[in-house]
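Appendix C: a fully annotated inverse folding record. The material below is reproduced so that readers can follow the format used throughout the book. The structure is listed first as tokens, followed by the designed sequence.
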């Protein structure tokens, strides 16, 4: 039966997008189908490739009627490389898809009625990435093929900054199996690298947003939501090298960044010194386990990894009982889960940010207010 079903061709209409960028449709038998490189409004003939109990993955056999949002991909590697998800649709449609993803998660997983009504974008869809991880099998240098570890040779990637693309030729002449990471900043191709945001200078020796200009949009929104005054205290519980702590914390009377990685904390302290922000300090500790002592922050910022907040981190935030929480997230699903878990706080503002144009990834920033005194 499964073999017969996998050989069937179905005619479907794409009604939206899944979190990974796949088009979503419903087959005649009721199953939901997820189809790569599909556009909302497409009428397609599709063939199932992986069949589950309630859903199937399918590939396009034929485009019956193309969506008005469909465009010709502008990259020769698009259909095989796993780097981009949306080069077959207009950028306006991509932004709508990402806003839909955020709001679906907030409603379905978080159970909240509030919705994001805007997605911030620099408008620059190419040449924005300041970091690339290249792979080599000893014969070709490039990126992994979609959903595999087969290397696709890349001579130029549209997402990358020019100096990284220029370095591909040099790397190709010195092939060795393994992984090579390049990062580009104000000091050229370097590790660590230097960057500037809104008058603040940073030395980066760890995580930093790959899209500097979009990062500025996110940081500005975090600063706006934090709304700090010189009489208030800020705690940033996942501070990394301190970029967000310094950006928002310069408005506070005192700020503290917490980060488990000791090397990142060292860089954060150096960044505070070079920007003459002596009221901002950093400690090396697990966000869920550190001892806050008698500190009573007015605002807590969290920008956790994709897996979101641990149960311990949620408890720590609730114990700190700040007036405001600003949550920056790279995964709408874990964000929505955590918003639901932060009891006693109301999510009052949500904004999406397009940090990664032409991919399905999207950033969010939320403002939460305490709804009762503790």
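Designed amino acids, in order:
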């Amino acid at each position: 039966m499964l073999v017969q079903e996998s050989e069937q061709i179905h005619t479907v209409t794409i009604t939206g997008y899944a979190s990974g960028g796949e088009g979503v449709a419903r087959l005649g038998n009721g199953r939901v189908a997820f189809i790569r490189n599909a556009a909302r409004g497409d009428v397609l003939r599709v063939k199932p490739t992986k069949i589950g109990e309630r859903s199937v993955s399918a590939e396009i056999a034929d485009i019956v009627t193309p969506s008005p949002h469909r465009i010709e991909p502008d990259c020769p590697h698009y259909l095989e490389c796993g780097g981009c998800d949306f080069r077959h649709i207009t950028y306006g449609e991509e932004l709508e898809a990402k806003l839909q993803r955020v709001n679906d998660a907030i409603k379905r997983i978080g159970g909240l009625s509030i919705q994001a009504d805007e997605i911030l974008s620099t408008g620059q869809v190419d040449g924005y990435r300041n970091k690339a991880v290249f792979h080599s099998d000893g014969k070709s240098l490039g990126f992994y093929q979609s959903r595999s570890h087969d290397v696709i040779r890349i001579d130029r990637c549209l997402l990358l900054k020019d100096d990284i693309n220029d370095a591909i030729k040099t790397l190709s002449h010195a092939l060795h199996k393994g992984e090579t990471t390049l990062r580009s900043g104000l000091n050229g191709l370097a590790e660590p690298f230097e960057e500037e945001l809104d008058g603040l200078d940073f030395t980066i020796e760890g995580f930093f947003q790959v899209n500097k200009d979009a990062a500025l949009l996110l940081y500005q929104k975090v600063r706006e939501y934090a709304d700090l005054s010189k009489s208030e205290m800020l705690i940033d519980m996942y501070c990394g090298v301190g970029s967000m702590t310094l950006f928002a914390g310069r408005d506070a009377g005192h700020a503290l960044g917490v980060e488990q990685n000791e090397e990142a904390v060292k860089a954060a302290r150096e960044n505070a010194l070079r920007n003459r922000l002596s009221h901002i300090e950093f400690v090396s500790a697990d966000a869920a386990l550190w001892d806050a002592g008698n500190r009573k922050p007015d605002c807590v910022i969290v920008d956790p990894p994709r897996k979101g907040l641990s149960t311990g981190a949620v408890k720590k935030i609730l114990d700190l009982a700040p007036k405001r929480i600003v949550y920056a997230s790279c995964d709408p699903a874990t964000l929505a889960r955590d918003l639901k878990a932060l009891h006693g706080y109301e999510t009052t503002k949500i904004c999406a940010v397009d940090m990664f144009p032409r991919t399905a990834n999207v950033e969010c920033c939320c403002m939460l207010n305490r709804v009762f005194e503790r």
